[in-house]
Specification:
With 334 residues, this protein is mainly alpha-helical. Helix content is 58%, strand content 2%. Helix 7 packs across helix 9 and helix 16 packs across helix 17.
């Protein structure tokens, strides 16, 4: 886009080594290029908040629950005949749900919903496996200790999914995403205290099991920078600006500040509002590209693909009346 590199404020990645390597990683090379133009400019490198949140699943050490559950769902859904028999069985028994949700390791966010569906159909699944003579392949379903862990995981992944929905999408400022994560950390501390006191208000699935009480132990304003302090005092003492702060969007509010009176605040706000908290927009663009770059569209050139991506990702509304006036007169082919 021919923008000066010194204008670059932030790069957000998924934290992979080829991007973050301290010597030859992409981020190091970007920083070097920026320093060539402006030695005082430091680029802010962030690890995608969505990606970091997804890592929580591995930190929970629940693979002994996740792997059998995924195996169970795949066993029922991956074979056409067996899947149809299971659906027919659910219809016979008037179950609350008519099918299991499918979980893909790529779409890990589906895990919470899948766990909830399996939990709600656990009795029907047990009877179906018995009919199929496959009970011995899934001994976990008759293990009370494992079922406790399964109930705990169902509730935990439900809370994680709620957080992730708040983090997804476009036009999320990084400070809003940080606020949601910070609030979730406080919620986790509350959950821990409540579970230790055998209170399962926020873990309703776990609370349905009598064995849960015996396993509770297992589950278990900053100072502003000095250069901003005087400007913040002026800002907080101005009733007109306080009214603006309440009535305007945050980005519009900082844009309205007088540059001469609040230079440091405006500069800090510009930097913060320019940060990307996640790689969501990038991943969404890759999805658009993959959908359009299908094997049967062999005549799709890079130029075509570039145009498709620009149309799919822009917010600008074209002025169709003005476009014909800018170019030569178009003639229909015969």
């Amino acid at each position: 886009m021919k923008l000066p590199r010194s204008k670059l404020v932030n790069v957000t990645t998924d934290g992979s080594l080829n991007l973050t390597g301290k010597n030859v990683g992409l981020l190091r090379r970007i920083q070097n290029k920026v320093k060539d133009e402006n030695p005082d400019q430091d680029v802010i490198f962030l690890h995608c908040i969505l990606h970091r949140e997804s890592l929580c699943k591995s930190v929970l050490q629940l693979n002994h629950v996740v792997n059998p559950e995924v195996k169970l769902v795949n066993f029922i859904r991956a074979r056409g005949l067996q899947h149809r028999q299971f659906i027919a069985f659910l219809e016979e028994t008037d179950a609350d749900h008519q099918d299991l949700l499918y979980h893909s390791r790529v779409r890990w966010l589906s895990l919470g919903k899948v766990f909830q569906r399996v939990w709600e159909l656990k009795e029907e699944i047990g009877v179906f496996l018995e009919r199929q003579g496959k009970t011995e392949e899934f001994p976990e379903l008759s293990n009370n200790s494992w079922m406790c862990d399964f109930a705990f995981a169902t509730d935990v992944f439900s809370h994680l999914n709620e957080l992730n929905v708040k983090l997804q999408g476009k036009e999320h400022f990084v400070h809003d995403m940080h606020t949601n994560v910070k609030a979730f950390k406080s919620k986790l501390a509350l959950f821990s205290r409540q579970i230790l006191n055998t209170s399962f208000t926020h873990f309703p699935t776990l609370g349905t099991l009598k064995e849960a009480g015996a396993k509770v132990k297992k589950y278990n304003p900053e100072t502003a920078p000095e250069e901003l302090q005087l400007e913040l005092i002026d800002l907080q003492s101005n009733p007109a600006l306080k009214e603006k702060f309440s009535s305007l969007k945050l980005n519009d509010f900082y844009a309205s500040l007088n540059d001469a009176a609040f230079p440091n605040l405006r500069r800090k706000a510009q930097m913060m509002l320019a940060l990307f908290g996640s790689t969501f927009v990038c991943e969404q663009t890759f999805s658009v590209m993959n959908i359009n770059k299908a094997s049967h569209r062999s005549k799709l050139t890079d130029l075509h693909l570039r145009s498709i991506l620009r149309i799919a990702t822009t917010k600008l509304t074209p002025d169709f009346d003005a476009l014909p006036k800018k170019g030569d007169q178009q003639h229909c082919s015969h």
